[in-house]
Design a protein that fits this description.
10 helices; about 60% helix; single chain; alpha+beta; two-stranded antiparallel sheet; Alpha-Beta Plaits
Length: about 250
């Protein structure tokens, strides 16, 4: 009798990772079917006998930086198969608020802190508000990327034009964001900082646009691998907003 099991798997950041994990799982003797969701971080499998955990771990390690961190379920059925509908990437069943809640909350917190810092000046200035917002934006977003630098670099290389050809750029990018944040916070050489922001974020948006036009689904790397967000309009707006704000401050 077939066994249905659900594995929690770490290390998946995109559809390509899910495909590698699925291929690795199906190499295990006795594995009948597998459905993998990188956004939920899980794999639903069916096997004629309970798979050997050590063997599965080795297969996943050979496929990449993936590891089983949990297992649940032990149903048996001759004709039961993993339900495709239940294992489709979870973002499809979430509301816009649930999907982008982390990003929206960060935006609100950074905006609030920037506004309070601006009111702390002798005279309120929109220039100060924009500068503090951009400082907070870059510092906070770089922080989340540093939590899993390797995972971010791998995810970023799935859609950024430069990171696709030079993997090292995925490791450099968080440092660039942190540097921009510090420069905005300290107001050192703002003209050069604005220009650098326009170039870096503008170039990043090109990769986002190219992948939005592609049928391949990729996870957004803007918040590293901590929060799993789909790459889409919100990501593009985020990049172009930074470009627009930097351009506005350059013109003021």
């Amino acid at each position: 009798m077939a066994k249905n099991l659900t594995y929690t798997i770490s290390g998946m950041t995109c559809g390509g990772c899910a495909a590698k994990v699925k291929s690795a799982l199906l190499k295990h003797p006795g594995m009948l079917a597998a459905e993998v969701s990188h956004q939920e971080g899980r794999a639903m499998v069916q096997a004629d006998t309970k798979p050997d955990s050590d063997k599965l771990q080795q297969l996943l390690a050979d496929a990449g930086d993936y590891r089983i961190t949990g297992i649940s379920g032990n149903n048996t059925s001759d004709d039961a198969k993993p339900s495709r509908a239940s294992s489709v990437d979870g973002q499809e069943t979430l509301s816009v608020w649930e999907t982008y809640k982390p990003l929206l909350l960060i935006f609100l917190f950074v905006s609030g802190v920037a506004a309070l810092a601006s009111f702390g000046e002798d005279v309120f200035s929109w220039r100060h508000l924009l500068r503090f917002f951009m400082a907070g934006f870059f510092i906070v977003f770089s922080f989340f990327k540093f939590l899993d630098l390797k995972g971010f670099a791998r995810s970023y290389s799935m859609y950024d034009l430069l990171a696709k050809h030079w993997k090292g750029y995925g490791y450099v990018y968080p440092f660039l964001e942190l540097t921009l944040g510090v420069l905005y916070l300290t107001a050192l050489n703002l003209t050069a900082t604005h220009i650098a922001t326009i170039v870096i974020m503008g170039f990043s948006s090109i990769g986002v646009i190219r992948n939005m036009l592609s049928p391949k689904q990729v996870q957004c790397a803007c918040l590293g691998t901590v929060f799993k967000l789909p790459l889409g309009n919100v990501t593009l707006i985020e990049d172009l907003l930074m470009v627009a704000m930097a351009g506005l401050m350059l013109a003021l």
